[in-house]
Amino acid sequence: MAVITKRISVDLQADGDMADISKRVQDAVSKSGMRNGIVTIFTLGSTGAVSTTEYEPGLKKDIPRALERIAPSNIDYEHHKTWHDDNGRSHVRSTIIGTSLVVPFVDGKLTIGTWQQIVVMNLDTSPRRREVILQIMGE
Predict the structure, then answer these.
(1) What is the pLDDT of residues 74-118, one digit of tens each?
(2) Is 38:137 a contact under the CB 8 Å cutoff?
(3) Three-state DSSP state, 93
(4) Phi/psi of residue 105, each to 5°?
């Protein structure tokens, strides 16, 4: 089995900004020359996340609103006492969503639904450049 590792960067605003990286992941799979396998999508850092969603304006607003209800910004986090910063909620949100995703590909094409896109999110309290590792494995 072959393994190819690629890296992509995405500049994102704070508090739930997200970007559709589906095309960039598909391009990496296509350029790998592999026909069947899996691609692991992993974002570096403990305040980022990777997931799938229907990438549309409504959900780009709904997801941060839902995360605010799950891990509110206006409560005290023990993390703040440790590092004297303000992003405890960001770490909690990242832990809930996750920093990686595995997507199979068949005949060189990602197996995602028509309305399903791969997104990277910045959950930190300030803008960040998110580094995303793609590890493509297959034949």
Answers:
(1) 999 999 999 999 999 999 999 999 999 999 999 999 999 999 999
(2) yes
(3) helix
(4) -130, 145
Name all domains of the chain by residue range, CATH numbers in brackets. 2-138 (2.60.120.460)
Token pair for 61 = 């607003």
Tell me the whole-structure pTM to 2 decimals.
0.96
How many C-beta neighbours within 10 Å does residue 31 have?
Answer: 12
The secondary element (H helix, E strand) that includes residue 49 is strand 48-53
Q: What are the tokens at 60?
A: 């780009």
Q: How do beta strands 17-20 and 37-43 pair?
A: unpaired
Instruction: Report which of 107, 104, 88, 106 is spatially closest to residue 96, judged by C-alpha positions.
Output: 88
